[in-house]
């Protein structure tokens, strides 16, 4: 069956609650309404459009939030829960789509205007926020080590996160630079530096983000248009940059799971810094040690 495509051009842009500092920590919203909904195929998969949401839409190197949308079915007064597994946003229209399956049979689609409760899966969100924040701490550690290279990609997924920078580091220097970066990262976590999330006028965002090095072009972040726009600026470990992701309140929050820098890879003018929850590497080292003891 052909996939039904919802024309979201007619819908209002979705208010992304996590964009503000306090909204970044809101995990539930009881004041959302359905502005559009379509059913996909014959099963109970639906695509829901809301006026406002607490869920983070996949993008900017951060995976989608998962969670639930709950509403009351007026025909029989029963609660319908939609288990949302993918949130995306149309960057051109600002409309977010929540895709998921209803956990109970859908008698009919809810009407536009139906009030809903939106809840984020808190454990996953916390982990993804830590992962994304740790990626920014890598940026700050790079700056601390005098490596003011332009960040070109952030991959803040849990299956092997990394940040990439344009440029190169001489092969002989790499082991020492890696050691310095690991130490700088650790020190920034120890310092327990609060995260800042602000939405600034474009000119101000441009100035704030390019104060340390001229590495950010506002055009890459929705700016550079005829009419200047506002840009969301996130400052982690003292290092500001344009960002649309979710974060933890302070670098100290990365301590419990021992986030840290794992390694460095150099390839064709790109330096990739890999990072991880390092208790994983400790486990690995213990295992390797155990193996070496056997022989
Ligand atoms: Zn970011």
TrEMBL record:
The record's comment on protein family reads: Belongs to the class-II aminoacyl-tRNA synthetase family. Alax-L subfamily.
GO MF, one example: alanine-tRNA ligase activity
Keyword Ligase among UniProt keywords: yes
Q: Which GO terms describe its biological process?
A: alanyl-tRNA aminoacylation
Organism listed in the record: Seminavis robusta
Residue ranges of every copy of the Alanyl-transfer RNA synthetases family profile domain listed in the record: 1-254
Supply the name of the protein: Alanine--tRNA ligase
SMART domains this protein is in?
tRNA_SAD (SM00863)
Give the UniProt subcellular location, in the record's own words: Cytoplasm; Plastid, Chloroplast
State the needed cofactors, names only.
Zn(2+)
Ligase keyword on record: yes
Instruction: Spell out the GO cellular component terms annotated for this protein, sorted alphabetically and separated by semicolons.
Output: chloroplast
What Pfam families does the annotation carry? tRNA_SAD (PF07973)
Key words of the record: Ligase
Entry superkingdom: Eukaryota
